[in-house]
Structures are given as structure tokens and as C-alpha cells.
Amino acid sequence: MITLKSLSSAALHSPVTVVLLGEGRSRADALPKALLSGLDALALKPGKAEALRTVTEGKVSTALYGLLPKEVTYDALEELVAELVKQLRACKASQVDVLLADDALLALTGALYKQLLLADDGFDRYQTTGLAPINADKPEQEPKQPFKPAFTVYLPAAFDLAAEQGKLKEANQMAAGIRQARRLVNEPANVMTPAYLAEEALKLAREHGFDIEVYDEQQIQQMGLTAFWSVAKGSDEPPRFLVMRYMNNPDTKELLALVGKGLTYDSGGYAIKPAAGMETMFCDMGGAAAVIGAMSVLAAMGARVNVVAVVAACENMISGHAYHNGDIIPSLAGKYIEVVNTDAEGRITLADAITYAATVLNADKIIDIATLTGAVGVALGHEITGVVADDEGIWQALQQASDASGDKVWRMPHFDHLAKHNKSDRADIKNSGGRPAGTATAALFCRAFACGKPWGHLDIAGTAYQQKASAKAPLGATGVGVELLTRAALTLFDE
Q1: Residue 347 designated active-site
Q2: What are the two backbone dihedrals, phi and then psi, of residue 300, each rounded to the nearest 5 degrees?
Q3: How far apart (Å, rounded) are the C-alpha atoms in residues 47 and 63?
Q4: Where are the domains of the chain?
Q5: pLDDT tens per residue across span 58-92
């Protein structure tokens, strides 16, 4: 929780105070003198945080000072806030006063609020006694107190308090959507089945006010989603096909579709992954979580947009009824797909989902998001999402969303000659164009099913999940895509 107040009203009742200031900036006149004297006692370095503890009448108080560099960037703020949060956790802070000592963050307060709101996030619901043996004779230990600090942010006179309240409201909505997406991705596959994902989406639809339809395995086959079903039928967990709608702009007939890959577990199928490659494959529905989170945020905002979202949720497993390498399978678009690699299953499920968005829902623009290729991580690392788009408007919207959210994107090529790598000698198209330009060829496979509609694709295979905590997110799911898709939708509808 965050409360905003004017710096002139700072009473400093909290045992922990954070002071954020910019290098070389004039200090606000209202900054309490006690904090200024502490500031003089420290040799602060840009991008670093220092702590000063004092004892007054037997009470310990902690002041944390963070110095922002002269050129304040989203990354610099993120790194500094992460360091401050680490120290707040160490002192088990429950009430924190945050004082902005100058106007260094005037353009980035929304980012600050979002980062503070996510400061307590993490996935520890299955951590109980840890390595210690359970002893029935010992009295029950008190549960560990969660780190859930309440922040009061004090703003100098240069900040418009009413405008900042609007930024805080938006930050709350974005942070809630990111949390929801992270939670969905972090759950293990024995919990987050396709049916469970559908139930969670239904709950969020009721909570935030968007419409949703969930189709079961019989309906999926009746609807002609044969490519999707070819992947799904190998698992004993039944698939689900989710169609979400948020129609809140009657002034236009324009319709944007968001399509998220929903593999709740990916073993690789008969092209089975090695053990190390399967360990985190519960996160292969990061695209689905992103579109569900984005729909939640757009509805919570009351955004004037018309957006539909489609998720084909299933598992990719090995069984007597699983599809094989070498199969030729039909699709909703009427194209026949040669399966050269059962571990390139996500694009097969997306094929039907994208076609459904383009034809049945008749979307005018389509953006799909997927943990699609290992190649994108090789090319861009684990902090940059790859984008392939054949429409300049979609690309510009995603780039603007990246600038506003701090979630970096980089455009990959979509030349027609790359699409030829997907040409099949036995069918219309094959599901892998090989290793060269793997991110682009996988994306262009998806484009082949967009029926000529303006299209964009985000490959979040490198950014959706991280094996250790960073300034961007705790260990596990990052929630990437929620804010990118939300902001892109707002831009595409001129909101």
C-alpha cells in the first residue's frame, strides 16, 4: 500500500525512512533538517544506497539514503529501488516513509510506485519448515511474518499531488496485473493444469468485469481446432480454449486481439527435452498469463478499448495417443502442417488460436505473445523481449509501451525470404524452419495463420522466467508482457 503526501507535512513517525535524491540537484526546502544532517555524514555514490541508524530515547530509527545518477533512467531507478528493498527486508520494515528530496524523479514517479508496490512479491507458498525435520513433539512454530511494508511517499512542491494520485492508481492496476501473471506462471504444472488456468481466468473475469468463454475438449474438436487438438490429445489433462472479451469503446468498430501461448507443461513430446530443459517448463504458459493479466488491467482501468484475448491451453506430453514427428495435421485455417519437431508445439497451438482471432472473432489487428524459442535468449539474452511485426503501428505501440514500462524490446527481421525456411515438401508448411534465424522463422510460422491481418509477435522465452532474483523481478516469473500489452492496446486506441 502507498499513501501520497506533501513533503511539507513529513512528520517522520516511521522507524524506517528512505530519502531519494538526485546527483547535483537542489534539495527541497521542506526536507527535514535531521535528515539533511545525516546526509552530510555520508559519502553517497550515484546508484548506491547507504544506511544510517540512530538511537533516540532507546528507540532505533533507520534512514536509508539513495542517490540517483545525473541521468535518471528507468534502469537506474530499478536498480536503486531493488537495493533499498533488500535493506528494508533486512530490517523487517513494516512502515516506511519515502521522501523525495528533489525533482529528480518527476518523470518517473509512476515507475517508482509500481516498483514499491511489487517490493513484497515472491513465490514462497510451498516453503514451510525448509530442510529442518518436522518434529511432532515440538510446539508449533509461529508462522514467518510476511514482508508487506506500507509506504508513505512524501512529494516536494514541484509535484502535482492530484496528478500523482492518478499515476499511483495506474501503478496499482499495473502491479496487480503483473502479480496475477507471475502467480499463474509460478504454479507448478501439477497445480496449473489447463482446467485450473481456465478457472483462474474465470475468477479474474468476474473480479474485473470482462467476458470469458471456456471451451472443453469436445467443443475444441467440434470447432475445428485440429492443430491445437493434435498437440493437446497426448495428455491425460484435458485442454481448454479460452476466449475473453472487453468491449468498452462504442465509438469504433476496431478490434484488437491478444493471443497467448498456453502450454501449462511442455515435455517436448516425442522430441523429448533433456531433464535440465524440462525443469521449468511449467512456465511455458507465460504468454497466456500475460494476456489474462492485460485483460484484467484494461478492465480494471475502464479503458476505452475493444480487445479480445485467446488462449489455447494444453500440455505437450508423450503417450500412445500423442502426435509424432513426421505427422501431417490439419488446422482451422485449412493449411496442412508437417510436424518435423514435436517440441515446436507452441506455434502449432498458436496457429489455430491466431486463425480463430482473425476469422471467427474478425479482429482487425493481432498481437501474439509466447515463450516460443530458445533462439531469442541466445540473440537477446534474458532482459530483452524479441518482437517480430509486419505492421508499423503495432511495432510503434510496443516500442512506446517498452519505454513507459521499462520492459525492453528489440525488433527482429520479418523478411519474406526467412518465411521460406518454413516451406514443406510434404504439406503446406512445416513447424520448424531449423536453427538459423530461429526466432524470426518461428514467428513467421505464426504469421502464416493471421489471414493477412496486421500482426505482431512477442517472444518472451528469454524474459518470462528467471532462475535468480534481479532488480526487475524476484526469482521465478517476471510477469513480462502484462504492461507491454496493456500499454500497446491503449496506444492503438489512442488512449
Answers
A1: yes
A2: -65, -35
A3: 17
A4: 2-124+149-158, 173-492
A5: 677 888 889 888 888 999 999 999 999 998 888 88
List 25, 48, 245, 273, catalytic entry: 273
Helix, strand, or coil (residue 140):
coil
- Name the class of domain 173-492: alpha beta
Residue 377 contacts residue 462 (beta carbons within 8 Å): yes
Taking a C-beta distance cutoff of 8 angstroms, is the pair 257, 227 a contact? no
**How big is the CA angle at 237 (ends 199 and 124), to the nearest 5 degrees?**
60
Measured between alpha carbons, how far is 389 from 396 in angstroms, rounded to an integer? 10
Percent helix, strand and coil across the chain, each rounded to 5? 35, 20, 40
CA distance 388 to 363: 19
Mean pLDDT for all residues in the chain:
93
Task: Assign a CATH topology to domain 2-124+149-158.
Answer: Leucine Aminopeptidase, subunit E; domain 1 (3.40.220)
Asked if 45 is an active-site residue, the reply is no
Catalytic residue among 179, 347, 430, 447: 347
Instruction: Tell me the per-residue pLDDT of 91-108, one tens digit each, with 9 for 90 and over.
Output: 888 889 999 988 889 899
- Residues near 299 by beta carbon (within 8 Å), at least 6 away in sequence: 208, 209, 210, 246, 248
In angstroms, rounded to a whole number, what is the distance separating the alpha carbons of residues 429 and 64? 59
